[in-house]
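retry 2 of 3: previous attempt timed out while embedding magnesium ion. Reduced batch size to 1 and resubmitted. Inputs unchanged:
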Amino acid sequence: MADKHSQSSSLDRILTLEIARVTERAAVAAARLRGRGDEKAADQVAVDAMRQELNRLPIDGTVVIGEGERDEAPMLYIGEEVGTKDGAAVDIALDPLEGTTICAKNLPNSLAVIAIAEKGSLLYAPDVYMEKVAIGPGYPPNTVALDATPTDNVNSVARAKGVEPHEITVCILDRPRHAKLIEEVRATGAAIRLIGDGDVAGIIHTTDPDETGIDLYLGIGGAPEGVLAAAALRCIGGQMEGRLQLNTPEKVARAAKMGITDPNKIYRMEEMAKGDVLFSATGVTDGNLLAGVKFARDAISTHTIVMRSSSKTVREIKARHQDLTKF
Ligand code: VTB
Ligand code: MG
Ligand code: MG
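retry 2 succeeded.
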């Protein structure tokens, strides 16, 4: 009965598959509002659907990375308890619709994402910005670092991959705050994939450069998204560092309330997501790794990646949902 997984972790192995349903449901709900220019509506239906499905899971869960504080987020707020309560005590990081603008414009790579981990294993990050660097698996340790310059990171990845810097592609969020970064990366000769939103996807894309064309992720995005991306990389393999952008006394104080004492700390991937972690992402719009939701007369199709850090199993689930009354 007790296999090596259930002995080494409080996370039930069955959850690894159950978790897929949670992001599938959120993705289908959001996909119905793709391309309608209404971010809020798409986000809201994804939140509703994810919450409903999450409350069916046999877990005693607490949202630690969610839609915001209780006052401003009616559902899936930080601190909200979810699940049926008869099951493992777990912490949950989620983003029912990562890339709301992408979804509203029906552009590539919006996702429904969730990570479930043993209690206390996810960084309780405030909703501030985080500077990030990430690469996929197969590189020697410390190939990239936040303390290194972007030029050094590009050159180091190129060297380790055995190619020239101009043969490397770096994914960066298209934001005015990245003007200097973009200029410096271009000066190395590397190509840049500028994305409008969706850095969880951008970071996951570094794990399969042959498929996505992306080798390295650099720049400043959301801290909640950073923890979610770290959870994903823990499962697939890769390297990542993150530094919270606590650039005002108010942010430093907010972070301190969440237990963060060193505002300049560089978090390694293993510090943002420790222990055993389950991760699931379902494509909402078509993307480089995951197909978006497809609607047909008699079925809805979804494409999901589910994974677990302790076993490093990565599964892709292409589902045909034929009982449409459920959606
Ligand atoms: C990024 C991006 C997200 O927030 O994390 C971004 O990947 C950071 O905030 O999809 P700004 O938009 O203010 O730059 C999102 O765009 C939305 O969660
Ligand atoms: Mg969200
Ligand atoms: Mg988001």
